[in-house]
């Protein structure tokens, strides 16, 4: 049920490297450009795509991702359109895992059953929903697993050893370790602490551990890749989109290109670190 | 509307997962979850600790100035009896005001803040954050932080900073840092987002003091418990004044904390009519803040409740003349009381609230806050239809000093 994700981590492992997980906001700055970005990501070296579902009130996101969501909403992005972009991406890419990342309300309002059926048929592999801790597993996590999609949980610096088993219990695909207590795009993490935390999580689960929040450059990505199975980058990409827009906030000829260039740099960082075989 | 099963008692909620029927819950990021569990435990211990209760009672008496009077609004009663007679009914309820506007800091908000600050002290937290709309909760939080020597940061939408300047200055005088929030619609919901973002970032030393019965469990329960002093006093005072319980209760609803504080102790006397009054702004078919009248169930700020949103689940802007009611949601317990039918939710427009505000000034010599002016607008409608022996209590939960600029502007008066 997590075949595409499992295969992706297996092939990264075969190359002795970490996976590069790239976040992009669906519909930012408009649906067609968003699709072009999506298509450019695997070519530029992204192994897994986190596709952001815009929400008016993203309480765990910093100003950059908040603004990206509002740009997408202003351009008319909806849940139906987000699923449609993935369907069109999937038509030419059968391998790259796509994870939808967002907040619960738009999914709840769409209807959990209908959403899971439509997400699955669009070719989505899993969900990350920020405001659903294990205490609310009945809402979406268990139905998602039953529908054969991955439910990827966030573990954080406040998730202690007592709590980890509950967080990991219904997690599938991979574990997303949030490297800082904070919102997206904030401080750069302390790499040493991150690798200790990853090691701690790995004592509790055989799943790959991806680390995100605060990774901005190829060098950051390389530092994280030392200890983790994957590195996730979001704010830097969203900032690259924003920097490429014209004064009215529309995409320019540089938009897709500058995103691709950023991702190439991150991919080079991740690939510069060769991991010890056995692991 | 999904019918919720009728419980044996309306006063037992929430369950251990923070649910009132299908509403409530703990919809927060994992980073916050351990803190919320820690808070639930700390509050549970405080609640059953006689030393905590005694400390609370002492500050309520000597610092807040409780009990607040239950006041017979005689001239308003007479006026509405004339209205009743003119319409051929010859009724008109006997109207009482629960005068929480006489509390220190001028509103009911302080009842809750006192409780939370005492809990924060027990937990060893030195940095307090809060969101505020009208600024009343921010002022109450800044006040108690000053009193106990704690750091205080208040998040306030940039739009509200502009329209509630006197309260911004008050908070600064009290030593708080006021952060104008520029994200989203720059009002109360964005202030709450920003406070949650601060909390996620500063988990180790920070206590989030939420100003209404919203947020994740245990907040809706804890804030309600602290506000229930309003209803408990009302019971005793009404027994003393009239020898019996009231027949109806009326309160304004932003998030619903002053309302639940009045209602909760009476929920199981089912003959008592209960009315919550939401802000209908420019009218329910225009911009408004009436989540029950114009919204539907969704998930925001940690709980499931009625929310204003579009068909795609994006939260919509609320509008009310009253910054304290300008919120696109309502506390989850109210959503449940609505669906069980135990309480009735009405709404009052900006214009109705303004008219009620002026009537209260002229007939009772009390300048009410614009929030309870919404409740009063519905008292004006309901009371003439009731018999003369009907006892109606309205929560006069705040004073109007903060609102005189807004009112002057709407009346076209120069200050
Ligand atoms: C005087 C007053 N009443 C009511 C409210 C609304 O809050 P709640 O519905 O939680 O009582 C506020 C909020 O600022 C207020 O200041």
Commentary on this structure:
With 279 residues, chain A is of the alpha/beta class. Chain A has a single domain, classed as Aldolase class I (TIM Barrel, Alpha-Beta Barrel). Chain A has helices at 3-14, 31-44, 63-74, 79-92, 104-110, 112-122, 141-146, 164-169, 191-202, 218-225, 235-244, 255-271; strands at residues 19-25, 48-52, 98-102, 126-129, 150-151, 154-155, 175-178, 209-212, 230-233. In chain A, strands 5-4-3-2-1-9-8-7-6 form a nine-stranded parallel sheet. The radius of gyration of chain A is 17 Å and the shape is globular. By secondary structure, chain B is α/β, with parallel strands linked by helices. Chain B has two domains: 21-63 and 109-224, Rossmann fold (3-Layer(aba) Sandwich); 67-105 and 228-411, Rossmann fold (3-Layer(aba) Sandwich), CATH 3.40.50. Chain B has 16 helices and 14 strands. In chain B, strands 3-4-14-9-10-13 form a six-stranded mixed sheet, with helices on both faces. A four-stranded antiparallel sheet of chain B has the order 1-2-12-11. Chain B is globular and about 65 Å long. The model of chain B has no long low-confidence stretch (mean pLDDT 96). The structure holds pyridoxal-5'-phosphate. Pyridoxal-5'-phosphate binds next to helix 5, helix 11 and helix 15 of chain B.
């Amino acid at each position: 049920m997590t075949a595409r994700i499992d295969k992706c981590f297996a092939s990264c492992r075969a190359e002795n490297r970490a996976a590069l997980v790239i976040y992009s906001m669906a519909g930012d700055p408009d649906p067609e450009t968003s699709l072009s970005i999506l298509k450019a990501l695997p070519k530029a070296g992204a192994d897994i795509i986190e596709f952001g579902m815009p929400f008016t009130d993203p309480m765990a996101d910093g100003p950059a991702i908040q603004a990206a969501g509002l740009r997408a909403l202003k351009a008319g992005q909806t849940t139906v359109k987000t699923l449609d972009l993935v369907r069109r991406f999937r038509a030419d890419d059968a391998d790259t895992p796509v994870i939808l990342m967002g907040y619960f309300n738009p999914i709840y309002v769409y209807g959990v059953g209908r959403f899971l059926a439509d997400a699955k048929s669009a070719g989505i592999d899993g969900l990350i929903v920020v405001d659903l801790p294990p205490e609310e597993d009945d809402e979406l996590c268990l139905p998602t697993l039953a529908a054969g999609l991955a439910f990827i949980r966030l573990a954080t610096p406040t998730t202690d050893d007592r709590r980890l088993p509950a967080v990991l219990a219904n997690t599938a695909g991979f574990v997303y370790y949030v490297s800082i207590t904070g919102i997206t795009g904030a401080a750069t993490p302390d790499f040493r602490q991150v690798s200790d935390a990853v090691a701690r999580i790995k004592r509790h689960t055989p799943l790959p551990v991806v680390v995100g929040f605060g990774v901005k450059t190829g060098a950051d990505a390389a530092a994280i890749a030392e200890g983790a199975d994957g590195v996730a980058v979001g704010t830097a990409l969203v900032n690259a989109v924003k920097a490429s827009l014209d004064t009215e906030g529309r995409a320019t000829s540089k938009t897709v290109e500058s995103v691709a260039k950023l991702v190439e740099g991150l991919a080079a960082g991740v690939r510069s670190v060769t991991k010890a075989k056995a692991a | 509307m999904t019918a919720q099963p009728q419980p044996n008692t309306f006063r037992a909620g929430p369950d251990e997962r923070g649910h009132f029927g299908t509403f409530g819950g703990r919809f927060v990021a994992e980073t916050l979850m351990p803190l919320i569990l820690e808070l639930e435990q700390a509050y549970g211990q405080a609640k059953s600790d006689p030393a905590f209760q005694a400390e609370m009672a002492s500050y309520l008496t000597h610092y807040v100035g409780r009990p607040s009077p239950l006041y017979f609004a005689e001239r308003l009663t007479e006026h509405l009896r004339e209205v009743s007679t003119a319409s051929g009914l010859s009724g008109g309820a006997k109207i009482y005001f629960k005068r929480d506007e006489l509390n220190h800091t001028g509103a009911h908000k302080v009842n809750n803040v006192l409780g939370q600050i005492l809990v924060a002290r027990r937990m060893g937290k030195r940095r307090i954050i809060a969101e505020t709309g009208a600024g009343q909760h921010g002022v109450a939080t800044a006040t108690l932080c000053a009193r106990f020597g704690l750091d205080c940061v208040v998040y306030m939408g940039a739009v509200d900073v502009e329209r509630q300047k006197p309260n911004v200055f008050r908070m600064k005088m009290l030593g708080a840092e006021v952060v104008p929030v520029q994200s989203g619609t720059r009002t109360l919901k964005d202030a709450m987002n920003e406070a949650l973002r601060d909390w996620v970032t500063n988990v180790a030393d920070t206590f989030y003091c939420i100003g209404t019965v919203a947020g994740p469990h245990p907040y809706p329960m804890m804030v309600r418990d602290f506000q229930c002093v309003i209803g408990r006093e009302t019971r005793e005072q009404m027994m003393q004044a009239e020898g019996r319980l009231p027949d109806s209760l009326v309160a304004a609803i932003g998030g619903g904390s002053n309302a639940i504080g009045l209602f909760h102790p009476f929920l199981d006397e089912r003959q008592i009519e209960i009315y919550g009054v939401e802000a209908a702004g420019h009218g329910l078919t225009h911009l408004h803040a009436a989540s029950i009248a114009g919204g539907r169930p969704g998930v925001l700020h940690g709980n499931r409740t009625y929310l204003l949103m579009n068909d795609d689940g994006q939260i919509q802007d609320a509008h009310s003349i009253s910054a304290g009611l300008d919120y696109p949601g309502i506390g989850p317990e109210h959503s449940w009381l609505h669906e069980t039918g135990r309480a009735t939710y009405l709404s009052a427009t900006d214009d109705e609230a303004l008219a009620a505000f002026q009537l209260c000034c002229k007939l009772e010599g009390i300048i009410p806050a614009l929030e309870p002016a919404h409740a009063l607008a519905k008292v004006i409608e309901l009371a003439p239809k009731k018999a003369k022996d009907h006892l109606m209590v309205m929560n006069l939960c705040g004073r109007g000093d903060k609102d005189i600029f807004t009112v002057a502007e709407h009346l076209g008066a120069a200050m």
